[in-house]
Amino acid sequence: MDSDIELVSDGDGLAVIGDPAAIERFLADEGLQSKALALPRVSTVVGGSAAGLQAGSQIAESSGRWVKLTAESAAQVKKYGLTPTGTPGVDHAMLGARGNIKGWIQIAKGPGSIAANPAILAGGAGVMAQLALQQTMSEVTDYLVKIDAKLDDVLRAQKNAVVAPMIGVGLQLEEAMTIREHVGRVNEVTWSKIQATSGTVADTQAYALLQLDALASKFEQKSKVGDLTKVTKEIAPKVREWLAVLARCFQLLDAIAVLELDRVLETAPEDADGYRTGIRAARMERREAISRSTGRLLGRLGEAVAIANAKVLTHPSASPAIVQISDRTADAVDEFHQLLGIEEAWEDPETRLWGMAATEVKVKAVAAGVGGVGAVKRFSSETGGRAREARGRIANRVAERSGTWRSRDDESDGID
Q1: In angstroms, how far is CA 350 from the centroid of its own chain?
Q2: What is the distance between the alpha carbons of residues 379 and 171, in angstroms, rounded to a whole number?
């Protein structure tokens, strides 16, 4: 029936396939944002056999939209009970509209269902994977514009021979993606230009991760507030620069994956499922490698905050500066994590809030007499505003982002 639609999910996105009017109704009912799904592209990669030609004709007659799966959108479609197919990582459901009543119900899969044709599922899953990659690429572009990253300036400033070719590689891949959009495929000429670019991008990513590790190591054996102030100020802009480089590397490696999938779908469609799942696994490994380095950095920032909070009474001006700079740097890392879909499960370090410090200084003031009362007044006048702000945001913010890290509570207790 024209009102029937099919849902196909690969975990990253959801394809809604069927009659255009039915698709629009479903998306409107669920409040889902979507983009066009190139079904004609699927029809060209399902094979030249009789079954493949029939499948291609079937899919070409349908319309399709693609929805990025977020936590919210995934929860919305979960109620429709998508079930696994014979294609790894791909789930499917067929839905029918409830007449004039708003809502959709799952119906039995007929012989014309997409799920009944492995060729369509494999080709469709490959195209869906490309759309998910391109969505992330677009989001990285927006991110780099938002943070006003001067990527070329950062890359030109590097004397390392590994990083230097990144600008040229980026231009090559952008050209290849543009040609792909106009031609509809990656031909031999385009492929010959970019097939060796992944090594340069991967090497640059590794170099950027080493730079983040080097920045984190600057906190080693630093326990004085003056030293920590200097380090936090020094690394903050450099962290942002290397996060931008990593974002660009992620974007370019995704572009390479899109182009590779095109080649596989065209030259070896029987390998499409394996290649698609391999790309997904490789992206996960990249995320994990990045999160290890950013996690170490967040841990060191968390330690610096813990020390600053422990010494807030003796350094009422410098300590909050450390906390504030660390918080802004952690915000930058957090935004970067969200961009790449890096899950965060960090432990809370036991940092001392400004409000607790204020209470402590009052207690000590009573014991110390007049001099202590003066300290209370000075503390209140200089840092009262910071106390209120930090109680709700600053000191705990880094704590919420720091991963598994070395606790320095025992060390800081004995530091003057």
Answers
A1: 28
A2: 55
